[in-house]
TrEMBL record:
The lineage of its organism: Eukaryota, Metazoa, Ecdysozoa, Arthropoda, Chelicerata. It comes from Amblyomma sculptum (Tick). Residues 139-151 have a biased composition (Basic and acidic residues). InterPro entries: CNOT10 (IPR039740), TPR-like_helical_dom_sf (IPR011990), TPR_rpt (IPR019734). Belongs to the CNOT10 family. The keyword Coiled coil does not apply. TPR repeats lie at residues 269-302. This is CCR4-NOT transcription complex subunit 10.
């Protein structure tokens, strides 16, 4: 009676707010204690009569976003599904599927879909072979005829779930077959079907077609559907290199979702993440930081989210290094001015041409405070490395998926780890901690799978750290330009890598292959310098010249700098620091005339 009264009170409240759900959970716990049922321990379930209270408890956990606890309860309930009332069993299976999708476990969800199809329609369809080991599968003892409670709506709902699972697994061919059947089903004209069709085109890289399909959705019915429409359009803009348009759509989606007053905080925080990521690519680093930090409340174990927060902090410090390669604009800052006149005229050089000096925060400011500083970035990157598994576990249930991107595949984990190690090494160098920077760089070089761009960065950061530690000989080993083969973002082997991204999510910065677009070749990845292997070799040669200079080998430094200045043209893409070093080396060797010639060549006004 107490249990039924708790259910009646919840429905009588007429609201689906979190407060009413919490009140229902408290009343449910009180009623269950009178029945000597321990809802906090799913293993204590040993009687079929206890299944309904445990199911309602799982429902409260689901609405409070405690998905893993809810899944543990349902896994235990699944063992009692044979003698269970069919209506309860059906509801339990649908909740089980939804939980698996929330936790990015599509293989397990497919197994439950196959069981429910067999239960409702007597279907002999089975889950894919790859899902058999991860699914608590059961099969009815005998083939059943479709019960009275089964309907076309249930069949359509199962088709929707199956399609969602296949798209989450990035199985394009299977998803296409399932969607063909879905279009002719009773739910073929629903907005869910339209969104899934659009998501399939998005997965295939057909961005224009994805938008055309989205435009067929009836988005004027409710605010939540309109919010999802703008979210999906924002994802398309993100992948076609239009971050500002995407930011506009995400802001609109977030505003409409808040106005809809729907009890689903998970979607709110995912929209918040998408908006934060888009602002990061727009260069709105402060706004992106605030959005992403707020999203941590929902996803504290999200490794990729912590990485994005660290990127906001680093970009606030220095957004890119393209200015260092703009020789025509930067070289005028090499000379501060002149003194004297005639034969006594002197050229006064600038003491430094760098613009990215970092001033550490004071000791009265805690690094754990969420402010966009490099100290907080270092903390975020430590979180990333702690949250990522050292290797792919045997059971995916034991690891919190790196939400929001779907499945926690080995390649995704490796790409996130490599990005975090490279960024952590850079941050440590900026904070004046070369030993820590060297450790991160060496750990990155020791990774079994590493992209060309991360290998280049690891060698450069390791060399700089060794120079600061006065280990110049070891530093020169990392600066061999011949070891720079490519600057690709993908791993050397890319045959097994996925070619797309799930709708509403983003790609890792080191993704193997960006989803190709049939309409255009644009990408959402920001320009990065050095952009080509030849430019990277120039940077490595410059750093090698610095190492020779510090060791006293001015002759070797001069020869190396001549290789740096090989590129010809009105505006060669070489770092402006190389000119300053060339002037310094000539002055140290007593060649003042050669130093003046370098200045006059690049700054004619000082002839």
């Amino acid at each position: 009676v107490g249990h039924n009264r708790a259910v009646a009170h919840y429905y009588a409240s007429g609201t689906k707010s979190s407060a009413s759900m919490e009140e229902f959970g408290r009343e449910l716990l009180e009623a269950s204690s009178q029945l000597h049922v321990n809802l906090s321990n799913p293993d204590s379930l040993d009687d079929i009569d206890q299944c309904v209270p445990f199911f309602n408890h799982a429902m409260t956990l689901f609405h409070s976003h405690q998905y893993r606890r809810a899944l543990a309860v349902l896994d235990r309930l699944f063992q009692f599904i044979e003698p269970m009332d069919e209506a309860v069993a059906k509801k339990m299976c649908f909740l089980h599927i939804e939980l698996c999708l929330c936790l990015k476990q599509p293989e397990k969800a497919l197994g439950i879909v196959a069981y429910l199809e067999n239960l409702l329609f007597g279907s002999k369809s089975a889950a894919p072979a790859e899902s058999s080991s991860a699914t608590p599968q059961k099969s009815p003892d005998k083939e059943l005829s479709p019960p009275k409670g089964a309907s076309d709506v249930d069949r359509g709902l199962l088709q929707l779930y199956k399609t969602r699972c296949l798209i989450m697994m990035r199985s394009v061919k299977a998803s296409k077959r399932e969607i063909k059947g879905l279009v002719s089903s009773p739910v073929g004209g629903s907005n869910q079907t339209v969104f899934l069709r659009s998501q399939l085109e998005f997965l295939r890289g057909n961005y224009r077609k994805a938008v055309k399909v989205l435009c067929t959705a009836q988005v004027d019915r409710d605010a939540r559907t309109t919010a999802m429409y703008h979210n999906n359009v924002g994802c398309v803009h993100f992948c076609t290199g239009k971050p500002h348009l995407g930011s506009y759509n995400f802001e609109k989606a977030l505003r409409l979702f808040v106005e809809s007053d729907v009890l689903d905080g998970r979607v709110y925080f995912e929209l918040l993440y998408n908006l934060g990521l888009q602002n990061l690519y727009c260069g709105k680093y402060a706004s992106a930081f605030d959005r992403l930090v707020e999203a941590v409340r929902m996803q504290p174990a999200n490794a990729r989210l912590w990485l994005r927060i660290a990127e906001c902090c680093v970009n606030r410090h220095k957004s890119d290094n393209s200015t260092d390669f703009q020789l025509k604009d930067r070289k005028r800052y090499m000379v501060r001015g002149t003194a004297g006149a005639g034969p006594h005229r002197k050229i006064v050089l600038a003491p430094s041409i760098g613009t990215d000096r970092y001033v550490p925060v004071g000791s009265d400011h805690s690094a754990a405070m969420p402010v966009p500083t490099l100290e907080f970035a270092a903390l975020c990157l430590r979180n990333v490395l702690q949250l990522l598994p050292p290797e792919r576990p045997a059971e995916p249930d034991d690891v919190e998926p790196a939400l929001p991107p779907p499945p926690a595949a080995t390649a995704d984990d490796a790409a996130v780890r490599n990005s975090a190690l490279a960024l952590a090494s850079y941050v440590a160098l900026c904070l004046g901690d070369p030993r820590v920077a060297l450790g991160y760089a060496e750990e990155l070089l020791a990774q079994p799978r590493i992209s060309g761009v991360h290998s280049f960065l690891a060698h450069q950061y390791a060399a700089e750290a060794l120079l600061l530690l006065d280990r110049i000989g070891d530093a020169t080993d990392h600066l061999n330009p011949d070891q720079i083969k490519d600057l690709s973002y993908g791993f050397p082997e890319t045959d097994d890598s996925p070619a797309g991204s799930s709708k509403g999510k983003e790609e890792t910065s080191s993704k193997t292959i960006a989803p190709p677009s049939e309409e255009n070749g644009k990408t959402y990845r920001k320009p990065w310098y050095p952009a080509t292997p030849s430019m990277a070799k120039v940077v490595s040669l410059y750093n090698l010249a610095v190492a020779y200079t510090l060791r006293g080998g001015l002759g070797k430094a001069t020869e190396t700098l001549r290789l740096v200045s090989v590129p010809k043209g009105p505006d060669p893409e070489i770092p402006v620091q190389a000119l300053m070093l060339a002037i310094y080396v000539q002055l140290q060797q007593g060649h003042a005339d050669l130093a003046k010639n370098i200045i006059k060549q690049h700054l004619p006004q000082y002839k």
